[in-house]
Amino acid sequence: MPMEPDAVVLGSLLAACKVHRNITLGKYVAEKLLEIDPLNSGPYVLLSNMYAELGRWKDVVRVRKQMRQMGVIKQPGCSWIEIQSHLHVFMVKDKRHPHKNDIYLILKILTEQLKQVGYVPEVDDDETYDEESDSEFILHNEMEMEVDAAVG
């Protein structure tokens, strides 16, 4: 590269390493990112997830331990959408939405309809995979925020 890559370039490369399962380059890039910002949870989480996808549980534990030792805390995932000039913010596993009962009822109906037409969520094969419960969990989470926004 004619210039030294910054955190944005390295972060994009690390994400690509995860997609293409290139753990060797991913580890190198994560280390470079942590040199730039050792308190950024992103490289730790991506690297840990890459190891988990490969079933390398000792490496997962090592990365998470390193993260704890550095005092790094992963912030919960969130997304937001603006509907009719009103901002709706959704945090992972947050069940406090005022319309949560309606949301989960619709989500259950949509999940059943998708299963009836043969939808199967894409999952990675690993030793912890339980087809029925994991598929429903993934399907549920894929739709949860979208339904939440539509009902909200």
Automatic annotation (TrEMBL):
* GO annotation, biological process: RNA modification
Report the PROSITE patterns cross-referenced here: PPR (PS51375)
Q: Where are the PPR repeats?
A: 40-74
* The organism's place on the tree of life at top rank: Eukaryota
Instruction: Write down the InterPro entries for this protein, in alphabetical order.
Output: E_motif, PPR_At4g14850-like_plant, PPR_rpt
One GO term in the molecular function aspect is: RNA binding
Protein's name in the database: Pentatricopeptide repeat-containing protein
Task: Look up and give the organism this protein is from.
Answer: Trifolium medium
